[in-house]
Design a protein that fits this description.
By secondary structure, the protein is α/β, with parallel strands linked by helices. About 40% of the residues lie in helices and about 20% in strands. The strands form two sheets. Strands 1, 2, 5, 6, 7, 8, 9, 10, 11, 12 and 13 form an eleven-stranded mixed β-sheet that branches. A two-stranded antiparallel sheet has the order 3-4. The N and C termini lie far apart (about 40 Å).
């Protein structure tokens, strides 16, 4: 990205000074980022996210990147002639589909992201929930196949990675328990990120989405809810004022808050450098949810 010649040296200095208290506040703290949506498929946005993640790490923020990969999974299923099936918004995962999910998430996509972080000057360690028993899960009841619900997060491997200066890049495939002992289970990446954030006692959970944030009126971009208490959103849910697509994101934020995460954010991954704007500017971006 080329420098803006209309920005003065003093303006640049002012931006750094504005960021200073936030750098001091978050240094040494853990921040979990759920990476997904358009920011994973648009090359310019992808580069911006990776740069943000590396900069966060360089500034001393213990940064954990959790990713999904719905479009990539869908693309591979189409390539092999496998039709997708969804139940209440969740992908039905039979054994063949689970093989592809694991191949895409824990294999190519995870290593591609890890390589991008390395290329940008960061130190990344690609992991999935099976590694070190990081995510242990039981199958969700109902007709979803090999879709799991995390029952335990083993944080040792994450802490070890962070303590050694690595950025853990985690895909949402879990180690099965019970009837699925030793099998791989497909986990919703937002939920996985929320539970990892809670287990780590993270300062923040940042959920990257393909929308501006929470809107009071989905037809009106100016109705963005910038800051909300949990009770406010629970009331809006009861009133039916939240769109169905946002309710699972909000529930993930509640899950993280239940686990002791201080603040959660739903932010627009279509904006370049959205992570830096949220963390290091007075204005912030998207919707911040706290107790």
């Amino acid at each position: 990205m080329s420098a803006n010649v209309n920005v003065s040296h003093q303006d640049r200095a002012a931006l750094l000074i504005e960021a200073l208290p936030y750098i001091q506040q978050f240094r040494g703290k853990t921040v979990v980022v759920k990476y997904g949506g358009n920011a994973m498929t648009n090359e310019d946005l992808k580069a911006a996210v990776i740069q943000d993640i590396v900069l966060m790490s360089c500034l001393g923020i213990r940064t954990v990147l959790v990713h999904g990969g719905g479009p990539e999974i869908e693309g591979m299923l189409k390539r092999v002639g496998k039709e997708s099936r969804f139940v209440n918004g969740l992908r039905y995962t039979d054994e063949e589909t689970m093989e592809i999910v694991q191949m895409v998430l824990a294999g190519k996509l995870n290593k591609d992201i890890t390589a991008l972080v390395q290329k940008a000057g960061g130190r990344a360690l690609g992991l999935c929930g099976i590694d070190g028993g990081l995510l242990e899960a039981r199958r969700i009841s109902g007709d979803l196949g090999l879709v799991g619900e995390v029952v335990k997060v083993n944080t040792e491997i994450i802490h070890t990675s962070l303590n050694e200066g690595y950025i853990p890049v985690i895909s949402s495939v879990a180690y099965g328990l019970g009837e699925d002992e030793g099998a791989s289970l497909n986990i919703n990446a937002d939920t996985a990120a929320a539970q990892i954030a809670a287990a780590l006692g993270a300062e923040k959970l940042l959920l990257m989405t393909d929308i501006q944030g929470l809107l009071r009126n989905v037809e009106d971009p100016s109705s963005l809810i910038k800051t909300a208490r949990r009770k406010d959103l629970e009331d809006l849910k009861k009133e039916g004022a939240l769109s169905k697509g946002m309710i699972p994101k909000v529930d993930c934020c509640f899950l993280a808050l239940d686990g002791g995460v201080k603040r959660t954010h739903i932010i627009d991954g279509r904006e370049p450098h959205v992570l830096l704007i949220e963390l290091f500017s007075d204005a912030g971006i998207g919707t911040m949810i706290e107790e």
